[in-house]
Amino acid sequence: MTRIVAGESAVPKRKRAIEAALAVGLVLLIVVGAVVASTVSRNTEAQAVAPTPAAELKLGYFGNVTHAPALVGIKEGFLAEALGNTALSTETFNAGPAAIEALNAGAIDAAYIGPNPAINSFAKSSGESVRIIAGAAAGGAQLVVKPDINSAADLKGKTIASPQLGGTQDVALRAWLAVQGYKTNVDGSGDVAINPTENAQSLKLFQDGKLDGAWLPEPWSSRLVLQAGARVLVDEKDLWDGTGTGKPGEFPTTVLIVNQKFAAEHPDTVKALLAGHAKSVAWLNEAPAEQKAGVINSALQESAGAALADDVLARSLANITFTLDPLAGGYPRLLQDGVEAGTTKHADINGLFDLRALNEVAGATTKISAAGLGQD
After folding, report:
1. pLDDT tens readout for residues 107-143
2. What dihedral do alpha carbons 103, 107, 111, 117 form, nearest 10°?
3. SS3 of 30, please?
4. Is the peptide bond before 115 cis (omega within 30 degrees of 0)?
5. Rounded distance, CA 142 to CA 263, Å?
6. Average pLDDT of span 65-75
7. Between residues 44 and 102, which one has the greater pLDDT?
8. pLDDT tens-digit profile of 204-229?
9. Nearest Cα to 296, choosing from 285, 284, 279, 286?
10. Which residue, 20, 62, 90, 138, has fewest beta-carbon neighbours within 10 Å?
11. pTM for this predicted structure
12. DSSP 3-state assignment of 215?
C-alpha cells in the first residue's frame, strides 16, 4: 500500500525509489569492480615479476681455445645437464662485438665473450644491457709479427690485424701502440694500420704476405707462430703486473655474460648455467692433458669445422689459465684503454658485475670479488 500525500502522486515516489536502488547498485558494482580489478592487477604484476626457469637458454661462444669452458661444457654435456628441463641452444661467433649485437637483439641470452665488448655494451646502455657473471679464461693473447720485425720501432707504416674493431685484442693492440708513441684511428689510418679481420683470414693473409702481424687470441697466435713462421713481439701477460687483481701475468680474456632482462626473469636458469660452467672450468684444470686435448679438438671440429694440430693445441693451452675469477680489478684499465682507443665512451662501470650466484655455486672459502664494481 502506497501512502499518498496531498499535492504528490504515487508515481514520483516510486521513481525516486527506483533511482535510489539503481544508485546503490551502481555503487556496489563500482566497488566490486574495483576490488576485482585490483586483484587482477596484483595477480598480473605478480605473474610479470615472478622468476621462472626459462624454457630455453640461447648461448653464444667462439671456436677458440680461450673459450674452452664453453667447448667442454657443451661437448661433455655439463651445461645441458645443469640446465635440466631448460633446452640449450648454441651459436658460434668470430668476435665479441657481433656476439653483443646478437645478445642485445635477443638472439642469444648469454655469451662467452671478451671483456671489452662487455664493457662497451654496459657503457652504451647506461648499465641496462648485460652483467658479467663469471670469469672463464685469463691470458692467451699475443702480438705475432713477421720475423724481420724485431721491435716496436719496426712497426711504423705496417699493417696489423685484430679480430674485430672494439674487441678485446683490438683494444689491447691500440693501447700498446699508443704507449709506443704511435697514433691509430678506427678507420684504419694512422702510423700503424689496424685491419680488423676474421681470425682464419688473418692466418691466410699473413701466409700470403699481406699482413705484417696480428694481435690474436689462442689458438690463432700459436697457429701463426707454428704454421706461418711468425715470431712473438708482445706476449700480453708481460703487460699485466697484477695491479688491481693481485695476480701478475693474468688478464681477463674470456668472461661469461648474461642479458640483464633474462637474468631478472630467470635467476634459477642463470644459476644452473653457472653450475655447469663451474664444472667445465674444474674439468679443464683437472683432466689429464691427453683427454683434455681430445675433447677440445673434437669440440673445435664440430663448432669451427677443424681440429688443431697437436703442437698448436699444446702451445695454446700452455698460455691460458682457466678460472672462474673475472679479474674485476683489471676493468678500470680495460675501460680506459677502450676510451683512449676510441672504441668505448667514458662511463661509470659500477654494477657491471653480479657474482652472487657464482659465489653461491662455487662455494669457495674466499669470495670471488667484484672489486667494487658490482655485487659479489
Report:
1. 999 999 999 999 999 999 999 999 999 999 999 999 9
2. -30
3. helix
4. no
5. 34
6. 97
7. 102
8. 999 999 999 999 999 999 999 999 99
9. 284
10. 20
11. 0.83
12. strand
CB 331 within 8 A of CB 371: yes
Highest mean pLDDT: which of 48-57, 95-104, 283-292?
283-292
Instruction: Give the percent of the chain with pLDDT over 70.
Output: 87
Within 58-211, where are the H helices?
Answer: 68-75, 78-83, 96-104, 115-124, 168-179, 199-207
Secondary structure class of 57 (helix, strand, coil): strand
Tell which residue, 348, 369, 364, 371, has the closest CA to residue 119. Answer: 348
Phi, psi of 168 (to 5 degrees): -60, -45
Burial of 203 (0-12, 13-18, 19+ CB in 10 A): buried
- Distance CA(72)–CA(298), nearest Å, equals 9
| Beta carbons of 129 and 153 less than 8 angstroms apart | no
Of 258, 264, 376, the residue nearest 327 (C-alpha): 376
**DSSP string spanning 228-264?**
H--EEEEEGGGG---TTTS-TT--EEEEEEEEHHHHH
216: Cα separation from own chain's centroid: 19
What the block records as the C-alpha cell of 231 is 715470431
Q: What are phi and psi of 122, to 5 degrees?
A: -60, -45
Give the three cell numbers for residue 85.
628441463
Taking alpha carbons only, the member of 203, 199, 180, 198 closest to residue 190 is 180
Taking each helix axis as running N to C, give the angle between helix 168-179 and helix 115-124, from 0 to 180 degrees, rounded to the nearest 10: 100
Asked if pLDDT for residue 88 goes beyond 80, the answer is: yes
* DSSP string for residues in 128-162: -SEEEEEEEEEE-EEEEE-TT--SGGGGTT-EEEE
Q: Which helix (H) or strand (E) holds 320?
A: strand 320-322
Residues ≥6 apart with Cβ < 8 Å to 137: 66, 67, 68, 69, 253, 254, 320, 321, 322, 323
| pLDDT confidence band for 252 (50 / 70 / 90) | very high
Kindly tell me the number of DSSP H helices and DSSP E strands found in the chain: 14, 13
Residue partners of 375: CB distance under 8 A and separation at least 6: 353, 354, 355, 356
